[in-house]
Amino acid sequence: MSTAATAASKSGEPKPIPVPNGDFYLLVELLTEEERAVVKKVRTYMETKVRPIINKYWSDDAFPFELLPSFKELGIGGLGYEGYGCAGGSQKLFGYVAMELARTDASMCTFFGVHSGLAMGSIYLDGSEEQKQKWLPPMARFEKIGCFGLTEPLVGSGTAGGLTTTAKRDGDNWILNGQKRWIGNSPWCDISIIWARDVADNQVKGFIIENKTTPGFSVEKMEHKIALKVVQNGQITLTDVRVPEANRLQGGNSFRDTARVLRMTRYMVGWASTGIQMGAFEATLKYTQERSQFGKPIASFQMVQDMLAKMLANVTACQCLMLRLAQLDDEGKLSDHQAALAKAFCTAKSRETVAWGRELLGGNGILADYDVGRFFADAEALYSYEGTYQMQNLIIGKAITGHGAFV
């Protein structure tokens, strides 16, 4: 038996090495039995279906479409939403599922978050009853995949007041012109939620666009990314795109309505970045248990154990923070600044945690084969998307000081 599987006891007999476990405080036990069953189902799927193939797809900058039929069977479309064929359940369960997805691969978590969180969330929160009845059931079944178009080539953090994509009313239709960039799922999905500035009142409004049948709507896949390579991001171009009034989100009439969606999904990024840390910690611990130098596992070295303990402390702190945030959301108390704090803190800690993991793997830390290099790269994307670290801190700063410091 290798040194990875055993350690010497005082009697000289080998003893089992602890199995890597990123849930040091046993927080999963706070879920109901039914919720734990869902989380277990997702973990089993990610371990058996995704982990064996994901590094190749990550390296090839490709999405594993072969997984979609089995992914649908998980029944997690519309987690946290009630009715309309959605999976329902608590926000705590939604968060744990996102964490489990990211624990194996952040790209699969992002695919799920864009579709179920941003696209479905826009319709669920800002759509009319008719729109919810029409779109949410097939989206919950993953028969229709969605994306969320807010960011633009020249507008990122300034979307609240600076969208250049315009919408002009023309009878029973709207005419949209502009571009969207970094839109996950857009090169292949079925519908896009597009946010545009109404030229009449200068307010942000949301629109549902059927990608494959709408003239003037085109998408170019973005290439050469160094992070979240499995997610297919696109640049959308809208040229005199005509959208019927029936496809305008009836409750999306200002950026305040857009922000309701972002509030929910922003803190989901906190769950995702926590999941990345779990995956990186567990992969790193396993590696140090198996890697021998100077005749013994490097996991037995003091400096290695110090870094592993710091990694685990970050993971556990983020898990506890996110759990409390989910409780607030389930109680209807979640605020923008609370979501901002979670996103900022967890993504910053994620960068720190995965960097320690990459360091402990030495040269192997830059190979996708060992998973940690993939987590290391993907953490960079999560740190920036859904609002940068600095923008989150300005949201927090305004809440705690009473003074807005935005430009």
TrEMBL record:
Stated family: Belongs to the acyl-CoA dehydrogenase family.
Originating organism: Dyella nitratireducens
Protein name, as recorded: Glutaryl-CoA dehydrogenase
Keywords: FAD, Flavoprotein, Oxidoreductase
Cofactors: FAD
Domain Acyl-CoA dehydrogenase/oxidase C-terminal: 259-400
The Acyl-CoA dehydrogenase/oxidase N-terminal domain, residue ranges: 32-143
Annotated Acyl-CoA oxidase/dehydrogenase middle domain residues: 147-241
